[in-house]
Design a protein that fits this description.
It is built from two helices and 14 strands; from the N terminus they run H-E-E-E-E-E-E-E-E-E-E-E-E-E-H-E.
């Protein structure tokens, strides 16, 4: 009986040791959808009330997803909410899986950038006016139906928009009141108004890494719960 108990104890110990050393399944392989491409940026917060977390950029190599880099991230000052039901001007970051249409910045694109990149000028705005036909679009000079008080003059945010990628949230067929101007951009002094931000050097690395031919997407979510990133 004693020998049997010892043998059983050893078997449990070996099992635990093997489990502890087993490689963790990469996050993209645990997600419901990655967009069908070979590049994915994940932005994960601990919970829906968090304004900080981690951005990781992944690339598919053969049949596996491999992390190409990571950086600390900031989210909306009021946390994260489901993108499909988000309300504009709530300082929340929309969760979900989105395309990355193009990059932009007040500074020149980092050498090696392949994604389309627009340089911010003195007349560059992002229209966020729900009454405008240009809602959730870059405009050069404000249209008459887009109020400056309801929009962002991009060169007024020289630090945050030194480099950025447009997140395709509410972009293709904008729903008024859902939200406009959601970007992955350079850190400012604190939490964002709804975007995801990372340190400047990380943003430059991401821009050099993104390859439009590999159909890059960004997934934003929490570690668990109703807005868990693995749902997207």
């Amino acid at each position: 009986m004693i020998l049997a108990r010892v043998a059983a104890g050893c078997a449990v110990l070996v099992s635990c040791l093997l489990g502890a050393g087993a490689p963790e399944v990469p996050l993209p392989e645990r997600m419901a959808d990655t967009g069908g491409g070979h590049q994915l940026v994940t932005a994960v917060a601990d919970s829906g009330r968090s304004s900080a977390g981690t951005v990781t950029w992944w690339e598919r190599r053969g049949s596996r997803w491999v992390a190409a880099g990571s950086a600390p991230a900031r989210f909306g000052a009021k946390g994260l909410v489901e993108g499909a039901t988000r309300v504009q001007s709530t300082n929340t970051t929309p969760t979900g899986l989105y395309e990355l249409p193009y990059g932009f910045g007040t500074e020149a694109a980092p050498v090696g950038t392949q994604v389309r990149y627009r340089r911010v000028g003195a007349r560059s705005w992002w229209c966020q006016d729900n009454l405008s036909r240009a809602y959730n679009r870059w405009v050069e000079g404000l249209p008459k139906d887009c109020r400056a008080s309801e929009s962002e003059k991009l060169d007024a945010y020289g630090v945050q928009y030194a480099h950025a990628l447009v997140v395709g949230f509410n972009y293709d067929r904008p729903v008024r009141g859902r939200g406009a101007g959601i970007f992955l951009h350079v850190n400012g002094p604190g939490a964002t108004a709804g975007c995801v931000s990372v340190p400047k050097e990380a943003m430059r690395r991401i821009l050099r890494w993104v390859d439009p031919g590999r159909k890059p997407h960004v997934a934003i979510g929490t570690a668990g719960g109703a807005t868990a990133i693995t749902r997207y």
